[in-house]
C-alpha cells in the first residue's frame, strides 16, 4: 500500500516508521528531521526498536497515494487539508486529538475521511530518531459511524505493519470519549505541571472529573450517546495506564509551544454554547491556557 503520513513529528514519525516496514511510505514534515530521514533513514527506539527508510519531504503538495494519514496538531488541520487537496488519495485518516479535524479535512477533500484515535505514545527525540514511549492501539472507522470495507482495508495495512489496530463502527462516540479524557487530563496536568497519575484523586482529580462530565453532557446534547459513567471510566483508565506520562499539553506548555486547547477545552465550550449549556470547568481551563498562550505571544487574536 502507498501511504503518505502528513505531519511527521512525534506520532507521525512513529507510525510512519512502523508502516514503512511493510508499505511504501512518504513522510511529510520539517527539516532537519526530513533531511536526516532522507539521507540516513529513521530510527525507532524505546518500546519499539527498528531502523527504516521511508521517503521524506517537506513539500506535501501534489502527492498521490492510497491513504493519507494526518498527524499534524489540530491547529494545523486547515492548512494540511488545503495542501492535501492538491494531491490524490483513496482515503484520508485523521489520528489527531481534539474535535473537528475530520470535518475540516472533509470540507476540502473528495475522498472518504476516516476518524481514528491513537493511544501510542511518541516523542521525536532528534532529527531522524523517534521513540515509542508507550505501545497503545489505533481505533479507526468512518467518521459518521457504521461499517466500512475501506476502514477494514486501512486497518489491515496497519495491522500488517505490527501496529495494534481495531475497526470501530461508533467513532462519533469514541471521538467524544477521547475528548472527555483529553479535556480532563490535558489542561489540568499542563497548568498544575503534574504527571497524568496525579489526577487519581483529591481536588485536582475533581477538576479533571468535572471537565470530563461536562464533555459527556455536551456529547449527549450533540446526539452522541456518551454517559457520565462511561466518560469517567475512560478518564480513570487513561489516568492509570498513562500515570507516568507528561500529557501533550503539558509538554507543549513546558517547551513554550502553542497547545491544542482550542480543539479540546475550547471545542467543548463552543459545542456546549450551541446548545445553551454551561460548562464552567472547561471554560475556566480554556481561559487559563489561552491566557498563557497570549502571554507567550502564541495567540494573535484577542480573548477568543
Ligand atoms: N505524540 C503523541 O504521543 C500523541 C499525539 N497525538 C495527537 O497527534 C497529533 C500530532 O501530535 P504530535 O505528533 O505530538 O505533534 P508534533 O508537533 O510532534 O507533529 C506534527 C508535525 O507536523 C508538522 N507539520 C505541520 N504542518 C505541516 C506541513 N504543512 N508540512 C509539513 N509538516 C507540517 C509540524 O511541524 P511544525 O511544528 O514545525 O509546524 C510537526 O513537526 C496531535 O493532535 C496530538 O494530540 C495523539 C496521541 C499520542
Ligand atoms: C491520553 C493522553 C492524555 C496521554 O497523555 C493524551 O492523549 C495526550 O497527552 O495528549
Automatic annotation (TrEMBL):
Pathway: Cofactor biosynthesis; coenzyme A biosynthesis. It comes from the Archaea. Keywords: Coenzyme A biosynthesis, NADP, Oxidoreductase. One of its GO terms (molecular function) is 2-dehydropantoate 2-reductase activity. GO terms for biological process: coenzyme A biosynthetic process; pantothenate biosynthetic process. Residues 173-291 form the Ketopantoate reductase C-terminal domain. It holds the Pfam family ApbA_C. It catalyses: (R)-pantoate + NADP(+) = 2-dehydropantoate + NADPH + H(+); (R)-pantoate + NAD(+) = 2-dehydropantoate + NADH + H(+). The keyword Transmembrane does not apply. Residues 3-144 form the Ketopantoate reductase N-terminal domain. One of its GO terms (cellular component) is cytoplasm. InterPro entries: 6-PGluconate_DH-like_C_sf, 6PGD_dom2, ApbA, Ketopantoate_reductase, KPA_reductase, KPR_N, NAD(P)-bd_dom_sf. Catalyzes the NADPH-dependent reduction of ketopantoate into pantoic acid. NCBIfam families: apbA_panE. PANTHER family: 2-DEHYDROPANTOATE 2-REDUCTASE, 2-DEHYDROPANTOATE 2-REDUCTASE-RELATED. Belongs to the ketopantoate reductase family. This is 2-dehydropantoate 2-reductase. It comes from Natronoarchaeum philippinense.
Amino acid at each position: 500500500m502507498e501511504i503518505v503520513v502528513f505531519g511527521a513529528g512525534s506520532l507521525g514519525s512513529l507510525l510512519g516508521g512502523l508502516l514503512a516496514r511493510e508499505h511504501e511510505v512518504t513522510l511529510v514534515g520539517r527539516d532537519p528531521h526530513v533531511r536526516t530521514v532522507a539521507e540516513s533513514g529513521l530510527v525507532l527506539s524505546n518500546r519499539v526498536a527498528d531502523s527504516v527508510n521511508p521517503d521524506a519531504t517537506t513539500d506535501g503538495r501534489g502527492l498521490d497515494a492510497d491513504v493519507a494519514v494526518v498527524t499534524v496538531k489540530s491547529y494545523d488541520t486547515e492548512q494540511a487539508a488545503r495542501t492535501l487537496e492538491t494531491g490524490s488519495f483513496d482515503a484520508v485518516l485523521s489520528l489527531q486529538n481534539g474535535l473537528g479535524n475530520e470535518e475540516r479535512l472533509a470540507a476540502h477533500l473528495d475522498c472518504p475521511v476516516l476518524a481514528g484515535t491513537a493511544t501510542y505514545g511518541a516523542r521525536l527525540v532528534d532529527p531522524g530518531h523517534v521513540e515509542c514511549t508507550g505501545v497503545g492501539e489505533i481505533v479507526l472507522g468512518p467518521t459518521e459511524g457504521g461499517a466500512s470495507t475501506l476502514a477494514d482495508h486501512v486497518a489491515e495495512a496497519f495491522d500488517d505493519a505490527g501496529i495494534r489496530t481495531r475497526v470501530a463502527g461508533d467513532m462519533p462516540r469514541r471521538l467524544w470519549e477521547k475528548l472527555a479524557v483529553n479535556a480532563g487530563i490535558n489542561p489540568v496536568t499542563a497548568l498544575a505541571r503534574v504527571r497524568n497519575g496525579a489526577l487519581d484523586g483529591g481536588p485536582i482529580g475533581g477538576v479533571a472529573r468535572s471537565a470530563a462530565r461536562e464533555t459527556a453532557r455536551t456529547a449527549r446534547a450533540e446526539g452522541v450517546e456518551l454517559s457520565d459513567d462511561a466518560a469517567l471510566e475512560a478518564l480513570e483508565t487513561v489516568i492509570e495506564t498513562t500515570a507516568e506520562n507528561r500529557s501533550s499539553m503539558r509538554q507543549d506548555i513546558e517547551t513554550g509551544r502553542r497547545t491544542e486547547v482550542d480543539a479540546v477545552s475550547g471545542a467543548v465550550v463552543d459545542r456546549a454554547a450551541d446548545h445553551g449549556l454551561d460548562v464552567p470547568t472547561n471554560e475556566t481551563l480554556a481561559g487559563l491556557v489561552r491566557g498563557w498562550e497570549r502571554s507567550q505571544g502564541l495567540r494573535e487574536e484577542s480573548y477568543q
